[in-house]
């Protein structure tokens, strides 16, 4: 376990719920000994990750939780993240870690780019529907909401209790950095360029994420076809659950678990449908999906360490 400002501390002093774990103290990355390590989860801020991964032993399997390797197109990374990519060679061997969609590729990967939380909640419902030609790939509108933990644990004025409590606010309006990641995945599914309208919102809750997605149905399709297709696509999946008709997915029911709950509703406007998808941003949107990916890369049962039930079932 490594740290930056907290190097030298025990994990229990940083995360008190782990106080009873007998784990070594955290060290700075430069002092870490990788000689007996098979795999790492890299949970560093964007930008720092490219530099650090380059210096790690080539034998290590890596699941990177940052955005540094999610975009295949380096120029797109530079445009949306506002900085030069410092490991373009490594980018070529990276597999995007949307587990249920890219499972076979992930199994053989050495480096996996774990998806962002918003892109996970959006792509899980939309990719199977686009692949099956059940929805139009134009005019997709995505309204997403996140708990504050999505912004990390570092102190920021915008994330103070007084700024967040008793209100919601939209941010990244018209230009959030998850747009190209969402469009990359949906374009792969459609085999043509897909563009989306996407607005994220910060909610006064610590964790949880909802994406409400407005789509146009393909000719002759009705919302029940969407529901059926999603049920079929995910029937053998443990962590993606399509709810029964009419049931509204709630972030509460995902808290602390690796589940993604999805449902499809008919819009009042003929020819349109509304899809709701919920995850825990810290689990399916981050560490849970990362562990699911590493389990695949290591040949472990995919649900190892992930059998936590939601806190609010
Ligand atoms: N929070 C979420 O919901 C999600 C986060 N992610 C991504 O996962 C990554 C980690 O996120 P999160 O845990 O929320 O972020 P935090 O800000 O809470 O944690 C960042 C971690 O990186 C360490 N760190 C910071 N700068 C450096 C550096 N220069 N060198 C070495 N270590 C450093 C910090 O150590 P210390 O505390 O000791 O300074 C800390 O452990 C980010 O890339 C984030 O975008 C992905 C999906 C969802
Ligand atoms: C609430 C909040 O600030 N959320 C983060 C997204 C967190 C995440 O999952 O994605 P990354 O790994 O790309 O950081 C944001 O909007 O930048």
From TrEMBL:
Pfam families: Semialdhyde_dh, Semialdhyde_dhC_1. PROSITE patterns: ARGC. InterPro entries: AGPR (IPR050085), AGPR_AS (IPR023013), AGPR_dimerisation_dom (IPR058924), AGPR_type-1 (IPR000706), NAD(P)-bd_dom_sf (IPR036291), Semialdehyde_DH_NAD-bd (IPR000534). GO terms for molecular function: N-acetyl-gamma-glutamyl-phosphate reductase activity; NAD binding; NADP+ binding. Residues 1-109 form the Semialdehyde dehydrogenase NAD-binding domain. Pathway: Amino-acid biosynthesis; L-arginine biosynthesis; N(2)-acetyl-L-ornithine from L-glutamate: step 3/4. Its EC number is 1.2.1.38. One of its GO terms (biological process) is L-arginine biosynthetic process. This is Probable N-acetyl-gamma-glutamyl-phosphate reductase, chloroplastic. HAMAP family: ArgC_type1. It catalyses: N-acetyl-L-glutamate 5-semialdehyde + phosphate + NADP(+) = N-acetyl-L-glutamyl 5-phosphate + NADPH + H(+). Belongs to the NAGSA dehydrogenase family. Type 1 subfamily. CDD domains: AGPR_1_C (cd23934), AGPR_1_N (cd17895). The active site is at 117. Keywords: Amino-acid biosynthesis, Arginine biosynthesis, NADP, Oxidoreductase. It comes from the Eukaryota.
